[in-house]
Structure prediction request, 744 residues.
Amino acid sequence: MHSARIRTQLRRPLWRFHGGLHIPDEKGLSRNACIQDAKLPKQLILPLQQHIGAAAKPLVQVGEQVYTGQKIAEAQGYVSAPVHASSSGTVVAIEKHPIPHPSGLSAPCICIETDGKDTWGERPPELLDYRNLDPSEIRARIRWAGVVGMGGAAFPTSVKLNPGSDQNIHTLIVNGAECEPYITCDDRLMREQAGRILQGVRILRYLLDVKRCLIGVEDNKPEALEALRLALAESDLKGHTEIVSIPTLYPSGGEKQLIKILTGKEVPSHGIPAQIGIVCQNVGTVAAIADAVLEGKPLISRIVTLTGRGIAQPQNFSVRIGTPFSDLLEQAGGLRSEGAKLIIGGPMMGFVIQDPRVPVTKATNCLLALTPEESPDPDPPRPCIRCGACMAVCPMNLLPQQLYWYARAKDLDKVQDYHLFDCIECGCCALVCPSHIPLVHYYRYAKTESWAREQEKRKAEHARRRHEAKEARLAKLEAERKAKLRKKKAALAKQGTGAAEDPKKAAIEAAKRRVAEKKAARAKQGVVPKNTRNLNPAQQRQIEAAEARRQPMRSETQRERE
Amino acid sequence: MLVAILAITALATVFGLLLGYSAQRFHVEGDPIADQVEALLPQTQCGQCGYPGCKPYAEAIVKEDEAINKCVPGGEATMLAIADLLGREPMALAEDAEKPKAVAVIDEQECIGCTLCLQACPVDAIVGAAKQLHSVIASECTGCELCLKPCPVECIHMVPIEEEVTHWKWPYPVRESLADAA
Ligand code: SF4
Ligand code: SF4
Ligand code: SF4
Ligand code: SF4
Ligand code: SF4
Prediction:
């Protein structure tokens, strides 16, 4: 009945993806907290790699004064993104610092001590008349602004917006589903800044030259839907842009799932949406695009939700990128209990962190502090009973139990035959597994292990080529040496000296003879070396020292001869 | 009946000759299976398997039925890959601890430039010339340790490669042991 209502209201049929789960959305904790500007932190920590692709290269030095919005690290290569100073201050370090990553490891970061003035540096011009510009110029601006996918994937947006001229892109999908439990940052953005999102949509429509745009929002966010509809009614986008309310079902915010829901189309396995004429962008990313193009503002802040029952006052903050999470925790009233588990991202796809001093990056949308009651330690896993529950809920239509079976056996070829790399790590399978098997952990293990093996294989191949090159070089040298020897032997044999069986000795003998002959000839003319006669003691010492220095060299040449 | 026998004999002769000819004409150097095994070995050329390099070890596995668990740098992954290729039973590793990856570093204060390490390195990862300071190109070094022994002043050390976020791997889930026990 529910979906029937949607259908009549919007005259748009919706499709359903395979599987999925209804899980408590827990958004009530923070959904009514307005976006607050977080305080400027004393220190900003800006990782050089906040995106998929190559890490950026620093453009500043320790001790340098930087201004808000100044580019402080340059993109390296096509799939990469620059980093900008998110407030003014002094660069105090360029060094490794813990970053939000499941490994808990550190990575190179630029640390800025803020001066509190937040003085803007020079900004590029506002491109208000972008309709007169070539799409590549708009893309260049988006690239300059360091915009990356803000829904969590962190793929450089300018690359995603350049699908190639051979792809006929007809549909832009803006992802406002926000299907993960707890998270409310996109909800707040849509409710409070719907106009900004639509401005971004207008830019993207021109840039991609698409016929239609669909903004998908789960129906558990009625205010967001309303705000978007109101903003749309006032804009000139009505004819080709639609706000679509979709049924709440995890993970409808997955890119491939949302495309299926809105268009009924399947993105091919290992493929990207552009192959079926679709480009998908998160609402936050679209708003950042509007800032970059219309205001010349790089991506230096984002909205972050702090929630969970472990946090005193759940909040939605507008935060400068690089702000330590510990600062935000303080502003949200701190932790309620000691034993809270800190998770970056949502409870389904996020990861646990130990150190709250890690900074907010372009792709971190949420910090959860879950009490032990909210997130109890999982029961010990039991053997798989082949119940098939995991298969029934998998939104990618995979066979999770087969994937598990081969990942567990470390059979990385077989696990890929079962489309391991199509798994979006949504966690549905692990949530329903009656045997409490940490299925997603197995898939993550298998994925990273496969990548590492691939890399090792390439390295081994490289080493083998170098080894063979060395062998070949040595063989060539040996052959040359032998050839020389043969020549000498032949030459000596011609001369008919008796020492032909040892060419080296013969050569030495010949050299000695030549010297002796020369000496004799000189002696005849009365020329004798004079510089070794009547030496004073100092000269004698010098000669002895030189001899001593030469000694090891001689023994070495001797060794080499041997 | 006779015709049939004759025909079969004639056919057998023709095919026999053909096979014999092609065996000679299309003879391949080396053993293709050994090559496939070699492709699975890490090419560190360290000799820890007891053979002078990866290729001899690969040949020994194929021709002399050598155990498949002797490659130390390759570890379990390589053993499993060979087991898979040859259809042999996987076996426990000879040495249970897989060594962390490392690269050689030359102490530049002490190097006397004797070139001995350079000659020992199987992949030409060391640069230098006689009486010059030598150094290791870290990106080419496979960590085989073959340069350590020849150095007369013991100035080469193995330094473990620091774990990087970009190379980090999710560990194999350990709680599985509980599942096996249950
Ligand atoms: S985590 Fe992967 S295998 Fe499991 S349900 Fe999600 S997509 Fe399917
Ligand atoms: S849900 Fe768990 S127990 Fe059931 S088939 Fe999947 S992995 Fe096995
Ligand atoms: S132990 Fe492995 S890497 Fe070392 S030589 Fe033998 S096969 Fe090659
Ligand atoms: S430098 Fe030493 S450890 Fe590195 S590959 Fe060469 S011989 Fe092996
Ligand atoms: S063997 Fe040792 S001393 Fe000789 S060149 Fe190499 S590092 Fe230097």
User: Anything to note?
Assistant: The pocket of iron/sulfur cluster (ligand 5) is lined by residues B 106, 111-117, 128, 134, 150-151, 153, 155-156 (CB under 6 Å).
